[in-house]
Design a protein that fits this description.
It contains eleven helices and ten strands. By secondary structure, the protein is an alpha/beta fold. The strands form two sheets. It has a six-stranded parallel β-sheet, with helices on both faces. It starts with 6 loop residues before the first strand and ends with a strand. Bound molecules: D-glutamic acid (DGL).
Length: 265
């Protein structure tokens, strides 16, 4: 008998759906409950205490839904989640460690740019893994605060003149730095792949979905938490904001799911 309880996934808004998408592809038999904290988005310009308290509230909500594991599909929340181990006794997986390690492995010249929210960059969570000079003497690392991208993405500004200019103005200084790997250190930025690749066409973009899915797989197997493989999982998407607005924001999300539901955390 498998464990058919849902897996909780959360983000400050719609960005974590880029991770959920990959999780659904990797785990078709699992049930997922996604929380997008649209009401409090963006997190990236809040203080560590404010973010940690929102992370607690969402986690408590997910625990009340009897999830068997939690994926923090938000770098900013991951960077402010170390307190969860004090009251959570199911596996909690953040996106930063698997993504940073994967980027290091993929980069050949070790010239790496990490694009993330202001709060993620300030937390130095990526630096601790990627900027280990004693291990990787060669290569330059760039940690770029890009919180303004989040607001633009939540406002559905992508693949248009505004978004291409926004990204070009911000990242143009990297274009002659021979960067071979760009870490999308914010789950919203998967939606800016086209904009970022236009400025840095030779760089490989690493998003959090794949490395996080691999880590979740290891944990589900190790802890014997996998769902029965003959079943099709259900996907519930919830928001702390306006569900109708969220439906409009996520027309790009092509995975089957129930109508977006409003929750209070
Ligand atoms: N998607 C989030 C991340 O991965 C944060 C966006 C925000 O600032 O709310 O960091």
């Amino acid at each position: 008998m498998g464990n058919n309880k849902p897996i909780g996934v959360f983000d400050s808004g719609i960005g974590g759906l880029t991770v959920l998408s990959k999780l659904i592809e990797t785990f078709p038999s699992e049930n997922f409950i996604y929380v997008g904290d649209t009401l409090n988005c963006p997190y990236g310009i809040k203080s560590p205490d404010e973010i940690a308290s929102l992370v607690t509230r969402i986690t408590k909500y997910l625990l009340s839904q009897e999830v068997k594991a939690i994926v923090i599909a938000c770098n900013t929340a991951t960077a402010n989640s170390s307190h969860l181990k004090n009251f959570v006794n199911i596996p909690v997986i953040g996106v930063i460690e698997p993504t940073a390690k994967y980027a290091l492995k993929m980069s050949k010249n070790k010239n790496i740019a990490v694009l993330a929210t202001n709060a993620t960059i300030d937390s130095k969570s990526y630096n601790k893994i990627i900027d280990r000079k004693f291990l990787f003497k060669k290569g330059q690392k760039y940690f770029v605060k890009c919180s303004e991208f989040v607001t633009a993405i939540e406002n559905q500004q992508f693949r248009n003149d505004f978004s291409y200019k926004l990204v070009k103005d911000k990242l143009d200084f990297l274009s002659d730095k021979n960067i071979d790997t760009v870490v999308l250190g914010c789950t919203h930025f998967g939606l800016y792949s086209s904009e970022i690749s236009k400025v840095l066409p030779k760089a490989k973009l690493i998003d959090c979905g794949e490395p996080t899915s691999k880590l979740l797989k290891e944990i589900l197997v190790k802890d014997r938490l996998e769902a029965d493989s003959y079943r099709n999982g259900k996907v519930i998407i919830t928001t702390t904001g306006d569900p109708l607005q969220v439906e409009k924001q996520i027309t790009w999300f092509d995975k089957e799911h129930q109508a977006v539901k409003k929750i209070i955390i």
